[in-house]
């Protein structure tokens, strides 16, 4: 199935070089892939995976290992952001 992965801020550094300028990569993944399955190959440190949305809906941290995606989903991930 096809999904879109969007990484924001410093997380774009974990994308392949050719996708870092756009922060978006279209992926072909196995049916019933979880969020954890999808991001694992990119080596994102767990402490940097802060805000996770699937099709604009927040996924709580305790559900990220079990939440599966379907064809056409958009997975967006932001790191923690500090401001002042």
List the helices and strands and how they pair.
Blueprint: E1 2-7, E2 24-28, H1 35-39, E3 51-54, E4 57-58, E5 74-78
Parallel strand pairs: 1-5
Antiparallel strand pairs: 1-2, 3-4, 3-5
Briefly, what CATH class? Alpha Beta
Report helical residue fraction: under 10%
Mass-distribution shape: globular
| Secondary structure category | mainly beta
Q: Can you summarize this structure?
A:
By secondary structure, the chain is mainly beta. The protein has one domain (2-78): Ubiquitin-like (UB roll) (Roll), CATH 3.10.20.30.
Describe this structure in words.
The chain has one helix at residues 35-39; strands at 2-7, 24-28, 51-54, 57-58, 74-78. The chain is mostly beta strands and 84 residues long. It has a 5-stranded mixed sheet with strand order 2-1-5-3-4, with no helix packed on it. The chain is globular, with a radius of gyration of 12 Å. 10% of the residues are buried. The mean pLDDT is 93.
């Amino acid at each position: 199935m096809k999904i879109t992965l969007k990484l924001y801020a410093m997380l774009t550094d974990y994308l392949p070089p050719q996708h870092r300028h756009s922060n978006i990569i279209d992926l072909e993944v196995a049916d019933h892939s979880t969020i954890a399955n999808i991001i694992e190959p990119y080596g994102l440190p767990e402490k940097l995976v802060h805000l996770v949305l699937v099709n604009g809906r927040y996924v709580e941290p305790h559900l990220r290992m079990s939440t599966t995606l379907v064809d056409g989903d958009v997975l967006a991930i932001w790191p923690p952001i500090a401001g002042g």
